[in-house]
Design a protein that fits this description.
This protein has helices at 8-24, 29-35, 40-49, 67-78, 82-101, 107-115, 212-242, 254-280, 286-310, 321-335, 339-351, and strands spanning 120-123, 128-133, 138-147, 154-159, 164-169, 174-178, 191-199, 244-245, 248-249. With 352 residues, the protein is of the alpha+beta class. Strands 1, 2, 3, 4, 5, 6 and 7 form a seven-stranded mixed β-sheet that branches. Helix 5 (82-101) runs antiparallel to helix 6 (107-115). It is globular. The chain starts with 7 loop residues before the first helix and ends with a helix.
Length: 352
């Protein structure tokens, strides 16, 4: 095991997923981003690789790996397509939440479908206006952002009335409206999710305690952010070495070197904090996930900003991934909440 907590299995897994990302995503990622299309074929191949059941037991068809394994996968995927990495993260968070906290008698059947690639929509925590009627157990309202909502069979969302997550089958009471022109993460099947008087049984409410689902979501978000920083590094450094101005590579200019240094700092610091949070997940250290989420997302946006500048005019076009990384890094801030909110939570935990 190395000092980052990675063993040989983690390193081999990272290598395999990096190869998958380059082979299945890299050639089409920019076109799919422009058109807000889902990666249908790569999604099915990801299911065959077991990417949707990384945290689930082998008895269900899952890989039964640790959270660090999932983060390694998300980081490698995000370095090519943050949208695809986010969709994979949502599928794994939904599966973990259902496995750990759901009381439905058919939950094993649901989990097997998720592992095989059936999309499960999941909302971004409390970014929604879904209200529960406590007397009739009916839920109505609209979720501003839901992930993997397109073509999904089940939705996992948060009801502010009971302060509880619940699972809902996609039927005539539900309506998903795809967001065609979102700022970033355009290939993650995101949109708005409306519910009209959907009846819920008691066993559809997840018996979660202590914000574990959001803690897992934060660590995954940090992993995606770390992957964006890595993708910016892989885009900007070769470009700077090859691009010649005034008779020499632009990597020889001091200002460009400072930007490359900023990208490298973002890549390393984001990785360290995210791996630390993954190792500490579920052990009572809520600060680890909050700090990783806040800092890694800030650093990803900084790295993307530097990458766009290193590429110059080309960085502002849709012909390079730098522009996509810039938008996707900003989208992470919106979807997971402003860093200021997380910093306030960090300060509260430290001061109380």
């Amino acid at each position: 095991m190395d000092w980052l907590g990675l063993n040989k299995d983690h390193l081999l897994l990272g290598k395999d997923i990096a190869e998958f990302a380059v082979k299945e995503l890299k050639e089409t990622v920019l076109d799919f981003d422009k058109e807000s299309k889902l990666f249908s074929q790569p999604w099915q191949k990801a299911a065959q690789l077991g990417l949707f059941g990384i945290l689930l037991p082998e008895s269900l068809g899952g890989a039964e790996m640790d959270l660090l394994s999932l983060i390694v996968c998300l980081e490698e995927l995000s370095a090519v397509s943050p949208s695809f990495a986010l969709a994979v993260a949502g599928q794994n968070v939904a599966g973990y939440a259902i496995h750990k906290f759901c009381l439905l008698p058919d939950k094993e059947s649901i989990l097997k479908k998720i592992i095989k690639g059936a999309p499960c929509g999941i909302s971004f925590g409390d970014i929604c206006n879904l209200e529960c009627d406590s007397f009739e157990n009916q839920v109505s309202g609209e979720s501003s952002w839901i992930l993997n909502g397109e073509n999904c069979q089940y939705f996992l969302s948060f009801g502010s009335c009971r302060e509880s997550w619940f699972i809902l089958q996609n039927d005539r009471c539900c309506e998903f409206r795809k967001e065609e022109e979102s700022l970033g993460m355009r290939s993650a099947g995101m949109g708005k999710f409306a519910v009209s008087k959907a009846s819920l049984k008691e066993d559809q409410f997840l018996q979660e305690d202590g914000g574990v689902i959001m803690e897992l979501f934060r660590v995954c978000g940090a992993g995606i952010a770390a992957g964006i920083s890595m993708g910016c590094y892989e885009q900007a450094v070769p470009y700077a070495r090859e691009r010649v101005q005034f008779g020499r590579p632009i990597s020889k200019f001091g200002m460009v070197r400072q930007m490359l240094s900023g990208i490298e700092e973002s890549r390393r610091i984001g990785k360290l904090l995210t791996y630390d949070a993954a190792i500490k997940f579920g052990k009572g250290d809520k600060l680890a996930s909050l700090v990783a989420s806040t800092v890694a997302r800030d650093l990803a946006f900084a790295a993307a900003n530097y990458a766009v500048q290193v590429l110059g005019g080309a960085g502002y076009t849709k012909d390079y991934q730098a522009e996509m990384f810039f938008r996707d890094a900003k989208a992470l801030e919106i979807l997971f909440g402003p860093p200021q909110e997380e910093k306030e939570l960090i300060g509260k935990i430290i001061s109380d």
